[in-house]
Amino acid sequence: MNLQSLYKDWILLFSKINDSDIQLYLQANQSSNHCPSCQTISSRIHSRYWRTVKDLSILSLSVHLHVRSRKFFCDNTSCDQRIFTERQEKWWLPYARRTNRLSSFLKQLGFTLSAEATHKVSVAYGTSISPDSFLYLIRKEELPSIGSPKIVGIDDWAFRKRHRYGSVICNLQTRKPIALLPSRTVEEVSKWLKAHPSIEIVTRDGSIEFAKGIKDGCPGAIQITDRWHLFHNLSQKVEQYVKRIFPHRISLSCRVKRREEKVNSLLSSLPSLTEGEKRKWALIQRVQERYKEGCKKADVIREFSIDRKTLNKYLQLTCPPKVTRESFHSADPYRSTIVSLLQKRATIPYIFSVIKQQGYDRSFSTLSDYITKLKRRRKQNVSVTKVFVSRLKLQAYLWSRLTPTKKDQFIFNRLFKLHKSFHQLKCIIQGFQHLIYHQKNEQSLMNWLSNAQKSNINEIKQFAAYIQTDIEAVKHALSYSWSNGIVEGNVNRLKVIKRQMYGRAKLDLLSKKVLYQFQ
After folding, report:
1. Which of 274-278, 336-340, 425-429 has the largest mean confidence?
2. Measured between alpha carbons, how far is 134 from 129 in angstroms, rounded to an integer?
3. Residue 396 carries which DSSP code?
4. Segment 187-219, tens digit of pLDDT
């Protein structure tokens, strides 16, 4: 290993390589240095001494640099410093015990992981640093100035959920967090905004405290409510309404003709594909597409990891394969005999004795249970069957996030007939979606509010009243493209950092880790 190539600015005097570390003895190759006080260049040497500096590890071996450093006379008679030690700012700072690149590596490691985890990683890299030393590295790091932000977003985050909250502020133009506040009160938000009068636009959620704080601290700024929170609030109101109408799961009574051949056809048409069958059909379609594109069978087999027989079967399919399982009862082979005897009003013991002679080898109770069920099915030509659907599926249908199957569509049609307000609710939801995504103008918003307030759904009226209280911010949400999405992402990042440190970080340390930006 040519160690001299790693230290081109130095003269390598000699080296020692052990099983645990590498000892390098170096000397600077320049003959002069500048005085740190007056910047005068001097070449008169006063004395020499040895100093030890730690460098990045090589092959997981810790590297110790033993530097033969020099002291120089300052020849400037007006300078107060008569003797100075040569500086090597490119490699290390004065009085430092680590090189700049090692300090940079440890700093990046400390900002990425928790102190305890960083200590374990540093040991694996041959540079054992205590957890407290990493915290010291983080705390002494100076954060860059945030400048004069113009467009910012603000959101809250939890020190401890439902007990104590702080606020995070992001510069939406640079997409970076710029401040962490210890609380989300009106006074704290207002105080920070007053210190930054350059702000022109502020995005936020529907918080009343944030709205008041922005108005007090920066009255000329444009407030924009976040569009995602509008959808979220509306979805909560829809959920409340559905739960009020259906406290439990939704059930519908359907009258079904019980003639055997019609029952079988109905039951065969109702079930849709299961999730597993949908995934399998999607795989079959991909296989067929690849084969139609001209791909060889061998290549398709390798790509999808399937057998050749399976491939041939997939290529012949024109519709989704449906697995059907028919139940079998031990008395089914004697069903015609049982039915004919029942029509003659024969008793169950007599039927048991007859089919026993024909080879039936099960117990009397098994046959009795079979005949009871058979009588029940044949007793009525029409019976009432209950069909169930989840409230989540109904909400997804209201938001048009669900393409219903024939069975689900039948259920939803019945629900909409029984509850006329569902049709009105779906129209209101679709109108709001169209307003946010397409129309985006004040007149459309006022028309939608008028329709919502005229509805007979209390939850929708409450949502419309909420929008009225924050109408200017909602109008700005339709006019501007800025949103709080970047802030929400940084809140999630903050949660990860906080949990990395087991929730024990104080605000100063947490602020350094959240606001620090890797170069």
Report:
1. 425-429
2. 7
3. H
4. 999 999 999 999 999 999 988 999 999 999 999
Tell me the per-residue pLDDT of 6-58, one tens digit each, with 9 for 90 and over.
Answer: 888 888 988 898 888 899 999 988 888 989 999 899 999 999 999 999 998 88
Written as one letter, the residue type at 173 is Q
In Å, how far from its chain's centre is CA 493? 10
DSSP 155-170: EEEEEETTTEEEEEEE
For every residue of 444-497, which 3-state class applies, written as one string? HHHHHHHHHHHCCCHHHHHHHHHHHHCHHHHHHHHHCCCCCHHHHHHHHHHHHH
Position 469, amino acid: T
> Tokens in use for 257?
């003709």
395 neighbors 236 (Cβ within 8 angstroms): no
* Alpha carbons 454 and 469: distance in angstroms, whole number: 17
d(CA 116, CA 210): 36
Q: Which residue has the tokens 């393409």?
A: 403
Closest CA to 254 of 383, 380, 382, 385: 385
pLDDT at 263: 40
